[in-house]
Amino acid sequence: MKEIYSIGHRNPQGLIFNKRTGDLWSHEHGPRGGDEINIISFGKNYGWPTVSYGKEYFGGDIGLNHSPRGYTDPVWKWTPSIAPSGMVFYSGKMFPEINGKLLVGSLKFMRLFVVSLGQNGLPSSEESIFKNTFGRIRDVDVLQDGSILILNDETEGGLFRISRRS
């Protein structure tokens, strides 16, 4: 039995299955920029520490061009870094305008990123909501009624439920 599913990951802070496709998605902190969303496949190498879209902390390039060097490209990247933390695919009726979209918390920018998927099922665009509303977002989830839970990592801490008034 093989124990290693994939390699080349750097500081993953979100891991979730897409219930529509069964694919395993992760997001990872890059060094200085280069945060990634990856769809994890068995036996693939996602490049770290050889390649990244971020830079070394002293400023130098790490190495670009994942696929020409045999590494798997991320399906989405953030440069500069958003410090992603926690993610969930929204599947509820309370907010139909974001149904099927990926919600990603941001520690650095203290907001929730809503990542839309294109016809091919891959990220195609993003917008941010709840800017500076809940502090550093550590995790996000969706309740059965479709409301959204946001957990922050502020000193006082907080768990917030976002819902629509009926």
How would you explain this protein's 3D organization?
With 166 residues, the protein is an all-beta fold. It folds into 2 domains: 1-79, no CATH class; 82-166, Thrombin, subunit H, CATH 2.40.10. The protein is built from no helices and 11 strands. It has strands at 12-17, 24-28, 35-40, 76-78, 84-89, 102-106, 111-117, 123-129, 137-142, 148-152, 158-162. The strands form 3 sheets. It has a 4-stranded antiparallel β-sheet with strand order 1-2-3-4, with no helix packed on it. Strand 7 (111-117) and strand 8 (123-129) form a beta hairpin. The radius of gyration is 16 Å and the shape is globular. It starts with 11 loop residues before the first strand and ends with a strand.
Question: What labels would you give this structure?
Answer:
four-stranded antiparallel sheet, single chain, Thrombin, subunit H, 166 residues, 2 domains, mainly beta
How would you summarize this macromolecular structure in one to three sentences?
With 166 residues, this protein is mostly beta strands. It has strands spanning 12-17, 24-28, 35-40, 76-78, 84-89, 102-106, 111-117, 123-129, 137-142, 148-152, 158-162. The chain has no helices and 11 strands.
